[in-house]
Structures are given as structure tokens and as C-alpha cells.
């Protein structure tokens, strides 16, 4: 009886897991494509939400295809330039940062709208957003692989820069979640379908991202080979979650004309590009006023 080569078996296992992540991503695209055509393609070309959705979906699909092709080329000993492979290895964290940024932009926009577009909040969120991306770029440049780098490194290990990026990403997500929960608990928004959806989806997005990022951080710091598969699953999860968040917002029923409407929160300027929702902070006061005026 012959024993299998442990290295070959490891690469096979990693390939199956990463391939599974791509299959999930493709399946999600297939089952939501009709909604994408109906709700996203019909948007005006100037809609930032449309382009963010297309980026989150098709950029990550292209990255996953590229990664699977590169993986196959390395396994079958295709002649590849070592310096270019080093650059690709280091840039994986930048690709992850770009992918995660699409999800973070949606969550940031939700919080910004929930707080009535406060300038201080917008400045704070943007500052954290760029700080996270700068960390990814700087660590990618600093932690360039040395002479011990081989082509198989790119399919068996993640660069240590993922640990720094992952920690900063989780910290930023915690800030967004805390801001959302605080506003949700401190205001009369709990019965509003739009805000309930924001709270539910935002919490699920936080849990999903935290799980995959923490696995990537721990596996990378411990030099565990399966960190590579967490990268593939993180990309797929981010794409699916971002697209679902956007699609869910598009399914919110349109608001109808009401006899008492105060100032409006332009959720649709941010999320649907079609309609405006009533300002739930003041609708109760107007409702009381309407009932008092109808009394004999």
C-alpha cells in the first residue's frame, strides 16, 4: 500500500474548500440574477448603489475565477514568473480590503442615514474607512515575501498582513454595529420596517464578517494552511452579503402619501433612488396633532 504525498493531499483539500466557496458564490448569483436584473440593472447609470452592487458581485467573481486558475497553474507546474507571484501574494490583502469595502460602504451609508446625515459621523466613518485601507496597503508593502517564497506558498498560506487588516476590519465593524444598536434603542424606530431590516441585516453582516475575518487572522498568525480557504470563503461571503443587503433594501414597500408628513429621511436617496420615507422621529407628533384636530 502506497501513502499519498502529504503536500499533494493538502493542496487537494485546500483546492476543494476554495472551490466550494466559488460554487456557493456562483449559486448565489444564479438564484438572485432575476432580482438583479429587475432591481439593479433598471437603475440610472448615475446611481452609486448600482455600481457598488455590480462591483461587489462581479469583481469578486472575477477574483475567484482568477484565483482558481492560478491555483491550477501552480499545481500543474506551469511556468510562472516568481517576482509576479510575490506581488500577487502580497496584493491578496489589498484585494480583500477592496472587497470588504463594498460591504462597509453599505453599512456606513445606513448608519449615516439613521443619524440624519450628521457631518461629524460622516467624517468619523470615512476616517476609519480609509485608515483600514491604508493599513492593508502598508502591510502589503512591508510584508513582501523573501527568498524562501515558492509558488506553492500562494496556495498554502496567507501573508501576515491579513492579520493586521483583519483586526482593523473587525474593530471598524464593531463601531458601526454599536452606533446602529445605540440609535435603534434610543429612538422610536423599533416598529419601522426599514429600520428593523437595517438592524437585522447589519447584525447578520457583522457576525458573518467577524467569523471569517477572525478565522483568517488566527490561521494566519498560527501559520495554518487552511487560512487560504478562509480567504476564498471571506470573498464569497462578502459578495453574497453585500448584494443581499442591497437587494433587501429594494424590496421595502413604497411609502404612500399621508395626510401628515414632516421632514423626510432620504433613505431612498441612499438605498432605492426612487422614494422618500417618512421621518419616523416626528411622525408620532404629527399623528397626535392630527387626532387632536379631529376631536369635536
UniProtKB/TrEMBL annotation:
UniProt keywords, alphabetically: Membrane, Transmembrane, Transmembrane helix
Signal peptide: none
InterPro entries attached to this UniProt entry: DUF6533 (IPR045340)
Transmembrane portions of the chain: 48-67, 87-108, 120-144, 164-185, 197-218, 224-247
A Pfam family recorded for this sequence: DUF6533
Annotated DUF6533 domain residues: 21-62
Name assigned to this protein: DUF6533 domain-containing protein
Lineage, broadest ranks: Eukaryota, Fungi, Dikarya, Basidiomycota, Agaricomycotina
Amino acid at each position: 500500500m502506497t501513502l499519498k504525498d502529504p503536500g499533494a493531499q493538502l493542496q487537494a483539500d485546500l483546492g476543494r474548500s476554495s472551490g466550494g466557496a466559488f460554487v456557493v458564490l456562483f449559486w448565489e448569483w444564479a438564484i438572485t440574477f432575476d432580482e438583479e436584473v429587475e432591481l439593479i440593472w433598471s437603475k440610472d447609470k448615475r446611481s452609486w448603489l448600482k455600481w457598488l452592487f455590480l462591483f461587489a458581485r462581479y469583481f469578486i467573481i472575477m477574483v475567484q475565477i482568477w484565483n482558481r486558475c492560478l491555483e491550477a497553474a501552480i499545481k500543474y507546474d506551469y511556468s510562472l514568473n516568481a517576482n509576479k507571484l510575490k506581488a500577487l501574494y502580497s496584493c491578496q490583502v489589498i484585494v480583500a480590503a477592496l472587497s470588504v469595502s463594498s460591504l462597509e460602504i453599505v453599512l456606513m451609508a445606513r448608519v449615516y442615514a439613521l443619524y440624519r446625515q450628521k457631518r461629524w459621523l460622516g467624517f468619523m466613518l470615512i476616517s476609519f474607512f480609509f485608515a483600514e485601507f491604508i493599513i492593508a496597503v502598508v502591510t502589503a508593502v512591508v510584508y513582501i515575501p523573501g527568498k524562501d517564497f515558492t509558488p506553492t506558498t500562494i496556495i498554502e498560506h496567507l501573508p501576515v498582513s491579513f492579520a493586521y487588516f483583519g483586526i482593523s476590519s473587525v474593530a471598524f465593524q464593531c463601531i458601526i454595529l454599536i452606533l446602529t444598536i445605540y440609535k435603534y434603542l434610543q429612538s422610536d424606530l423599533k416598529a419601522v420596517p426599514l429600520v428593523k431590516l437595517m438592524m437585522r441585516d447589519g447584525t447578520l453582516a457583522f457576525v458573518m464578517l467577524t467569523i471569517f475575518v477572525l478565522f483568517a487572522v488566527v490561521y494566519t498568525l498560527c501559520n495554518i494552511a487552511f487560512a487560504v480557504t478562509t480567504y476564498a470563503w471571506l470573498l464569497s461571503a462578502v459578495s453574497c452579503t453585500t448584494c443581499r443587503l442591497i437587494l433587501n433594501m429594494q424590496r421595502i414597500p413604497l411609502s404612500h402619501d399621508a395626510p401628515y408628513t414632516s421632514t423626510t429621511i432620504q433613505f431612498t436617496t441612499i438605498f432605492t433612488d426612487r422614494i422618500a420615507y417618512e421621518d419616523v422621529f416626528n411622525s408620532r407628533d404629527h399623528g397626535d396633532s392630527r387626532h387632536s384636530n379631529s376631536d369635536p
